[in-house]
Task: structure prediction
Amino acid sequence: MRSCNELESFAYSYTGGDPIEVNLSNQASLNQLSLTAPVQFASNHGSMRNIRSIRMEFPALNGYFQCLDLCPSVEDVQFVFPKTIDFRPSISEPMRILPSIITLSLTSASVFEYEESFDFGLFMDRFQLPRLRELDIHSSLWTDDLPSWSHASALLKRSNARLESFTVMNMLHGSDFRECLRQSPSLKMLSLGSHLIAKVTIDTLTRRSIARQPFACPQLQHVELCGFSPRAYRKIAELVLRRWHSDPSLPIPSRIRRVVLRVSNEDQVKPFLHLPGIDLCILDGLLVIWQDDDFHCTVYPYDHSIFLPPERGNLSHNYSTPDKRRHDVVLGR
Result:
């Protein structure tokens, strides 16, 4: 068993009580740190230069800024913000250029309303992340009634980030979400809640806004939808079909190769499978995957051997139950 000063990973979690002061300065081997508890770093805390991954929840805003200052080599950042956090003091913080961060995940408290004190966008405004490749935003901050909210897209633009994976759950201002897509030509994976799927989103991903400009997200191949919604299913199917059958005379975006439906039960997958044209895409290589609440995955491919070429054109409106294969896997991103 290793001595305490040789720890490589440390996790601590509890709720309630007064903040506990911690000092991990002597943990030279520590590279993974998870503190989801009312804690604060000691004022004389030394730098933790070997930390590569953090998952943190602090009782006050300054804890998050201090944490980033103490971990100059961190690559994977997961911040959870309790409802007690007031983000307004962010505006007095200096801009931080953090070239080590590759993954940023922000989860704000469930508020389903807008107050400036809840606005984590003020926190995002204080960073420049030139190596950012994966951005996850889990927020219930109600911003759609605001004339504009552009903190996420401004972060990408300011950082000149080459985002490859983008996850948005619950709420994000619609115009900012679409601008994030336009700012992400290297995006390969998009995961989102059903409310963000709208006609204007599909148009953003399949049409040029200006002649001779590239499509948004031309490398997008993997789409995940969280939650059952027949309307969102139709929009996802429209996205798949538009990019599958683009005009060959035009520079085309990549096909959507994988659709993951994150729903509770298998019956909620069937309406998507029955949408016109999806069966032909499956036959042609599209993977439709059901991910249940335990993260088990069921893949729905056709058994190609049962289809004869002359009958291929008659399949799209005569959907039969596909061959299902159970895979307990972690989806590649």
The first helix runs from residue 62 to 70. Residues 1-74 form one domain. The helical segments are 62-70, 121-124, 151-159, 174-182, 199-206, 230-244, 270-273, 278-283. Confidence is low (pLDDT under 50) at residues 303-323, 325-330.
